[in-house]
Amino acid sequence: MSDDISSSQSSVDLSPKFCRLEYRTPAYEPLAALYKDALGLNEVEPGLLRSVDGGFELAFKVLPDSTRDSETTVGLYHVAFLLPSRAALAATLRRVFAAVRSATERRAETAAPDGARSAAVNGFSGPAFFIEGATDHLVSEAVYLRDADGNGVELYADRDPSEWRRDAEGNIAMDTVELDMAGLLASAPSTEGICAGSSIGHLHFHVPDLDSAEAFYRKNLGLKVTQRRYPGARFLAWGGYHHHLGINTWAKDRRAPQGAAGLVRVRLSEPPPGASPSSGAEPQPGAVPRRELGPDPAGIIWSW
Ligand SMILES: [Fe+2]
Predict the structure, then answer these.
(1) Which of these ranges, 4-18, 39-53, 131-145, 285-299, has the smallest mean pLDDT?
(2) Which of 10, 44, 55, 102 is the most exposed place for a label (fewest CB within 10 A)?
(3) pTM score
């Protein structure tokens, strides 16, 4: 039995928060079609999007020469936006589906006579984003998307923690079963973007090796394992959450080329448990982070 799993608390503690993610991209506009137009994040300035209550932001640094890699590589698997309720998830999904429908209609209207698709946004010729799947994970209901650069995005809502189950070893029961999409959508007739009270609930990375990655995140970020029985994956959390970080080896050791598009930095709202506090004043919103860590086994830099 793992000390981590057996020592997990029953209460849910969602801090520290993921307050800023920084990406490298060859073009911002195709990403805005998802994060701004479909998901409803506020554009503070081109390339900087913020949640409606300011709880988190996404920063996209445009480097025209950065490449989009079609193959799965070590690095980000997905960023998961946690909606505060099932109805809030349903309302956001309705907005995403509406955006997909209108984009499909626009592409059909602008299709070239020879059948080739015209550029959808500012010369970008691929789909701005697409819906990959939907899953019931027992602890949560989730829908998966992929943005124009191939970055994974999960939209999810948790079931009440009182419904989470643990096995005899303390692993929080998580599975991949069919989602009741009709029931989910029926929970909200409205259409809304990612609403106030939403957060970045977890991140999921491709890493080359589970054991060494687990050791890194335990030692440096104070994360504890909550589930180690999932094939090729492991889940870690602060407090008693089901996971703030998922890691898997499904990309094996494939590496993206230097300077590839994707997630490069993660900022936490406060030091993770066990991190030595820096001297000096408390951090202010927008202040330069005081501590940096990494790159981690997924090639990501962390700061707080
Ligand atoms: Fe996830």
Answers:
(1) 4-18
(2) 10
(3) 0.89
